[in-house]
Request: fold
Amino acid sequence: MVRSINQNKWHELKFELRDKFPHINLDDLNQADSAVDSLIRQISERSHSDQGEIVHLVRKAIEYIDSKHVI
Reply:
């Protein structure tokens, strides 16, 4: 699922995921670069959650963010 997204959407994605994983702080999320796979790994390591579940949540968050930017 290697995917990069633009910076504005990247920041939105981090805030969406921070809401879903309240024990993950912004510093943890900022350690990931702009590749989605890095972000998923970072969340998985910090939250001890199933990586498949995180992938699903990230995909849904990206779809939501993309839908907000459709003109």
